[in-house]
Amino acid sequence: MKKFNYRTTVNIHENTMQLGFHCQLPAAMAGRRIRLQAVFSQRQVDRRFPMEVTLEEQENGAQILADAAIELPWVFRQPPRHKVMVTFSLWCGTEEYLLDDQPFPVQKELFARPEESRKRSLFKFVLCTLGLPFLLLRAYGKAGRNLSKAKKRANDTVYRISGYTYSPRQQNTDYFAAKYEQWVEKTPVLEGNKVLFLSERLPEEGGNLQIIKEQFARDPEVTVTEFICPRTVDALKKKELRECAARCAEARVIVLEDFYPQLHRLHIRRETKIVQLWHACGAFKTFGLTRMGKPGGAPQSSMNHRNYDFVSVSSEAIRSIYAEAFAIPTTKVKALGVPRTDCLFQWESKKEKRKKLYEKYPVLQEHKVILFAPTFRGDGNKDAHYPPDAFAVNRFMQAMPDDVVCIVKQHPFVHQTMDIAPQWADRVLDLTGQDHINDLLLLTDLLITDYSSCIFEAALLDVPMLFYAFDKEEYMASRDFYFAYEEMVPGPVTENFREMTNKAARMVSGRWSLEEEEEPTSLANHLPALTRRMEDFRRVFLGVLDGHSTERIYQYIKENYLS
């Protein structure tokens, strides 16, 4: 266990803690990515809060400097009943060090939350509407002359004063919450074992939600219900909102695989448990409440994610990362696995899927396969895109050997198509929106990606990977990663199209090595350094995946949450 000599500064004013951290950087950590979490603990409940870290060169060596402005009333989902102790967790790369030798207490009274009394007043709403031009003008100045931010600010002001809002999203969320409360009052006692599968997007074939749903559907002691509608809450009809609220109120377990916004507005009854399967393995890009203060990130007061009772992840090493992202106690995050990966351990299933794909796309059987599968750019579904000039598929194919086929598989959020020249029509397959990426990985000789979570499934299948990160600095500034990108990814990183194309041609032909010291004839047999990196990657991020995730998660839910 490394010893750290560190000191902290604490200043609390009006229930906001200005927390500072100062530590000498150990020589062994030089050049590594450093992350820091402030850990607030009361009994068995903790909250991991990300801190902003900078490394500063001083006369006595490099120093770790970290700070955070923490709004204490919003640290815990419920105000604490006991004294809170604050410690730190320091990450160097993928190694975590608990710094709990200098805990300091914070009185529970400082976490008190002002009672919100949002009584609806139609009269106040009318007055606000009459004064809306003034509110917009004031908000316009405070929002740095940004009209869209000004509209949101003015709308929030009207909502705070009157309890009414101009936002269809907020209107429907409030309606949904009201109907849930009414239904709970009508059915004060839960009966039976109803498991509700909830999603605002169509479940992916072979995805976590579908697999667990099928598992419970085979259990005669469980009643499976669902509310799956590929529309956001602002687009749902009142009838649909009432139906969803009723099913939530009747469910003993609610199962998710992604963020379901309006669910976090509810005061969930004690008997109902919420299970978050999440849709990805590992921990790559920052997500959830880790992104506080970043573009698209939630405010500290957000209740998003905080009512999960159980989250399943792919390794012990990343439990505290998910606890940070969802602002839940680490004890609620269990390393029980990811159901969608089970099929990657089933030889007969893999063989059958390969056979079907070869029958569907005969050209794949006769060629080496490069799979191009980048993630999207943008803030979400509505503005998701991939820069059309970033991957010139026709120029790419000109540099490839004649025995190579390229599959293009864009993120499901991206609906644009690539301009494929007729001469490449038989060797470039755009399968965006078709066939599950896990199935395509079974045929892949080289995966080219950037920041996509498909790297975790590829690692389980031992697929060689090449990373094309042309906008890495921009992406880090807006989204960031939990670990240093180059240290984490199990393959070489390129930042321009020409370099990526040349390296892809060499890798798929088996003429490249990690150290560029030899020219092997077989990539798989002659890349020991890359193999070691892949093994380390799997150990850290995928440690518990063994083909039995579905069974473990099913048993955990049934034994702990169902009567």
Main attributes of the structure:
563 residues, alpha/beta, Immunoglobulin-like, Rossmann fold, 4 domains, 7-stranded antiparallel beta sheet, 6-stranded parallel beta sheet, 16 helices, 30% helix, globular
Descriptive report:
With 563 residues, this protein is of the alpha/beta class. It has four domains: 6-111, Sandwich (Immunoglobulin-like), CATH 2.60.40.2440; 121-163; 171-341 and 550-561, CDP-glycerol glycerophosphotransferase, N-terminal domain (Rossmann fold, 3-Layer(aba) Sandwich); 347-541, Rossmann fold (3-Layer(aba) Sandwich). 30% of the residues lie in helices and 21% in strands. It contains 16 helices and 19 strands. The protein has helices spanning 122-130, 132-142, 147-162, 168-186, 208-217, 238-250, 319-326, 347-360, 393-398, 437-441, 454-460, 472-478, 485-488, 497-508, 528-541, 549-561; strands spanning 6-13, 16-24, 34-42, 45-58, 61-71, 84-92, 95-106, 194-199, 223-228, 253-256, 273-276, 310-312, 333-334, 368-372, 404-408, 428-430, 446-449, 465-468, 493-494. The strands form three sheets. It has a seven-stranded antiparallel sheet, with helices on one face. Helix 2 packs across helix 3 (147-162) and helix 4 (168-186) crosses helix 6. The longest helix has 19 residues, at 168-186. The protein is globular and about 70 Å long. It starts with 5 loop residues before the first strand and ends with a helix.
